[in-house]
Specification:
alpha/beta; Rossmann fold; 37% helix; 19% strand; disordered N terminus; disordered C terminus
Length: 767
């Protein structure tokens, strides 16, 4: 998509009509502050832009997860033709184009222009929104972009003015404004049901899987402000819809975490707003075990509460009756609303599953409403919902909320040039993960020269940054698809430890990234003179539902097509890498860890059972047989021992890395409950019953016309992990001694999740 140049925004200090009463630590001149807080832009006039033909020619940039929702909606939107899908990765673009029947897959904006595209749906990470929106508008293309429009009011204003100057549509996908419960609420407010709106109370309490996994590479962790623009923009767009322009904000930070040195994350926020049509209170909590997302509107004559998570709406009005009967009527009214919402959600799900109704889950309905409203208004020449002016005001709300925290991006470490591989260099792919970090630490303790191949140089673990800056670790940027980067990293190295997962949502993606990518790593190792490659696979590649003892062997599940994509991918990756090793003489070791637990792993581990909720675990069977549990640090010990083994070591072997602390899934959930003080429950379920339930789901889906494979009982049996494992090669040839003492294991695998300390003093975090 071309080189992204720095954007220089003209300053205009006229009419500064908006002030945020909180002091922001952001570095900016007074003229920049005035320009950022000015209120120059008036309500939008209708565009004279119209699509040229009978259909609007649409392109989509960014073939990630959110793009699927855009494409699902666009393919059923009248008057729209999807011309092309664009992504920096041509393979990703082609994969998405093939799945959705789009003729063209391209990699540059100019190609979209040449194909006659008129409007682009922009679905790229937030830090690309401003430069790419600017580039698209300057190329004469309208933009329907994912939120947020910009990360700063000044940039949002620049984009709004640019779109106006070119008479092009610029709309932001504030899909929560089209959430079915919120739209129903707005209808009742506009009908005068609760009188004049006075105050809005919003609660947003959500889990964040990345926090549980200690994975801080996501954009939202890069600065303290980013979480506001990643998560808070949804409720802020609703507050703007209800209350208009924001006048002031007072934010109190209720909790903070230091994710990495210099990388702070505020996980709980409370903000009081004053706006043109009323006041608001927003409570946000991230990384929480209980999900709550509500918008409660208090009016002069009643109240309404929309439950955004469950898609329910309930209200309360004044009545003519005495207090005791008024209270009864109020309770019944709220109960009636919740019951009606619950029945509607169940009905919609059932009809969609049976194939006799459209998809009606709240997120999809909101996306559909937002996208189709844009295209309908665009073709009719009507004013556009959530246009650049509205998005600018939402950005002001976000700026007001986030004014208490820094917008400065911690600089990525400037590591020394890696140079050539040193003597006996060990190259680690995936060295920043929860096992990889431990592998690197153990290699350093052994006095070994280590190289880490990373996809990005920010948000790296503290030890890797420290040793990388000192030159003790060679830091090289590359991915499994970056052949030149891998060649540079592996040239002259002695050993490679391959921990990079490379998973995917479709078999085509798994095959391309995991199977073919890993096979190519083996090829490059052989070409570069690497003597030994240790590939970290998984016991998921095996069939673990039979009898007897599972010993070290190259045998994988002989019926992989009845297993999930991950299992199939691991099995086929092992085979592909072995073919390379057999042909080239590369010393290949495949290591298959069992159920890996310990610090950095999610507490709700799928190896223990199916977590229907984060506190309800349904067993893969009765959950009464010991599992092949193993601590992450013990896996790291086994991998390092395999990598450094003298002579031929265990070259040519596929080895198991499974311990036996004598704990079942039921036992582990019980110990986790004790450690955390939470109501964690294990629900034993016989495999035959689980299979019957899966068949029931399959029947319903087939009746609904959906093509789905018959549920494989073989996979359920394998998930139960009831067959014991032997790890003889690791124990005998590598002297591997994993923790198997029950009490010590519980200390390291369960008690690590115990609450740590008290909440910080809220007053000390108020700014």
């Amino acid at each position: 998509m071309g080189k992204v140049l720095p954007i220089r925004v003209p300053m205009d200090t006229k009419n500064p009509g908006y002030q945020i009463p909180t002091s922001s630590p952001r570095v900016a001149t007074s003229s920049e502050q005035e320009a950022r807080t000015s209120n120059m832009i008036q309500p939008q006039s209708k565009l004279t832009f119209h699509p040229a033909g009978t259909t609007t020619k649409v392109g989509l940039i960014g073939a990630g997860r959110i793009a699927d929702f855009h494409l699902d909606v666009l393919k059923e939107t009248p008057g729209v033709e999807i011309v092309a899908i664009c992504d920096l990765s041509e393979e990703r673009a082609k994969d998405a184009a093939q799945r959705y029947g789009v003729k063209k897959a391209v990699t540059t904006i100019q190609e979209l222009v040449d194909l006659g595209v008129e409007v682009v749906h922009l679905a790229v990470p937030p830090d690309y929104h401003v430069p790419m929106t600017k580039e698209l508008l300057e190329a004469g293309l309208g933009v329907f972009g994912e939120k947020p429009m910009a990360l700063d009011t000044l940039d949002a204003q620049m984009l709004a003015e640019l779109a106006e100057s070119k008479n092009l549509p610029l709309v932001v996908n504030h899909n929560n404004v089209f959430h079915p419960s919120f739209m129903a609420m707005m209808g009742r407010i506009e009908a005068g049901e609760i009188g004049r709106v006075q105050h809005v109370q919003v609660t947003l309490s959500v889990p964040l899987a990345q926090l549980d996994a200690n994975d801080y590479t996501h954009w939202m962790f890069r600065t303290p402000r980013n979480i506001v623009f990643e998560q808070a923009v949804h409720p802020l767009s609703q507050l703007h819809h209800l209350l208009g322009k924001v006048h002031s904000a007072n934010t109190t930070l209720l909790g903070e975490k230091e994710l990495l040195p210099g990388l702070t994350f505020y996980d709980r926020w409370s903000t009081a707003f004053k706006a043109e049509k009323g006041t608001a209170q927003l409570y946000m909590a991230f990384g929480q075990p209980f999900t709550r997302s509500t918008v409660q509107v208090l009016g002069t004559d009643g109240s309404l509460e929309a439950d955004m998570f469950h898609d329910h709406l309930a209200g309360e009005e004044k009545t003519v009756f005495l207090d005791f009967w008024n209270s009864y009527k109020a309770g019944m009214s709220r109960s009636k609303g919740f019951k009606k919402g619950a029945r509607t959600v169940l009905k919609n799900w059932s009809m969609f599953t049976l194939g006799i109704g459209a998809r009606r889950d709240a997120f999809f309905v909101g996306m559909k409403g937002s996208i189709q409203a844009f295209h309908k208004s665009l073709r009719a020449g009507d004013a556009l919902s959530n246009d650049a002016r509205a998005a600018l005001e939402v950005t002001r709300w976000a700026d007001a909320l986030a004014g208490v925290v820094s917008s400065q991006i911690p600089p990525a470490p400037e590591f020394p040039e890696p140079g050539e591989a040193r003597e006996n260099e060990v190259v680690v792919l995936g060295g920043t993960g929860f096992i990889g970090r431990r592998v690197v630490a153990r290699l350093l303790n052994e006095g070994v020269n280590v190289s880490c191949v990373v996809r990005r140089t920010f948000s790296l673990p503290e030890q890797i940054v420290k040793e990388g800056l000192s030159g003790k670790i060679r830091i090289l940027r590359a991915s499994l698809s970056d052949e030149e980067g891998l060649k540079k990293a592996l040239k002259g190295a002695k050993t490679c430890i391959h921990l990079a997962t490379g998973n995917g949502d479709t078999w085509e993606e798994v095959e391309r990234v995991m199977v073919k990518g890993s096979a190519r790593v083996a090829e490059i190792c052989a070409e570069s003179g690497v003597k030994r490659l240790v590939y970290v696979s998984s016991v998921a590649a095996l069939y673990t539902g039979g009898g007897g003892l599972i010993k070290d062997s190259w045998d994988v599940d002989p019926q992989p097509d009845q297993r999930p994509l991950y299992s199939v991918g691991k099995a086929k990756t092992e085979a592909a890498m072995k073919q390379v090793a057999d042909r080239t003489g590369l010393g290949l070791v495949v290591a298959r860890p069992g159920v890996v637990v310990g610090e950095g792993t999610p507490m709700q581990h799928s190896g223990l059972g199916m977590w229907a909720r984060d506190n309800h675990c349904v067993g893969w069977g009765l959950g009464d047989t010991p599992l092949p549990l193993v601590l992450a640090e013990d896996v790291a010990d086994g991998l390092v021992a395999a990598a450094l083994a003298p002579g031929a070591g265990v070259d040519g072997e596929a080895i198991n890395l499974c311990a036996n602390p004598g704990l079942s899934g039921h036992d582990m959930v019980t110990e986790l409950a004790k450690a955390t003080g939470r109501r964690l429950a294990f629900h034993p379920r016989a495999l035959w019953l689980s299979q019957a339930m899966e068949i029931g789901k399959w029947v319903v889906k087939r009746v609904g016309g959906r093509k789905v494979a018959f549920p494989a009982y073989r996979d359920l049996k394998s998930r139960a992990l009831a067959t014991p494992f032997a790890s003889d090669i690791a124990r005998e040839k590598l002297n591997w001694k994993p923790v198997e003492d029950r009490a010590v294991f519980i200390e390291k695998a369960a008690k690590i999740y115990a609450p740590k300390g008290n909440l910080p003093d809220a007053e000390s975090n108020s700014k």
